Amino acid sequence: QVQLVESGGGLVQPGDSLTLSCAHSEFTVDYYRIGWFRQAPGKRREGVSSISSSSGSTYYADSVKGRFTISRDNAKGTVYLQMSSLKPEDTAVYYCNADVQYYRGTWRPFGSWGQGTQVTVSS
Fold it and tell me: Up-side HSE of residue 112: CA atoms within 13 Å toward CB?
């Protein structure tokens, strides 16, 4: 089973920026679309962003479009999520998933999960 390790979360103020990292050690993951999901307290996990293996295709949820940027460095086995203009509603545990596919009208996670990293946006 592929192991993913998220990092970079923390406590920030509204308007601040933060960059999350998702590291993996399996080279086969380089061939998969990887995505970021988040889960706020009392809410369902939702898709935030995803990126294709070649970085040629990206997806952003409407709630983060224009503020978040996803990228990947296959040589380093890492996917990044640059978050800017953070809002309190971005507060959640952020997870990455190693196999995101388009199914029944939306991008869905089919691969391994990391342990998550907490992002808290509060003044």
Answer: 16
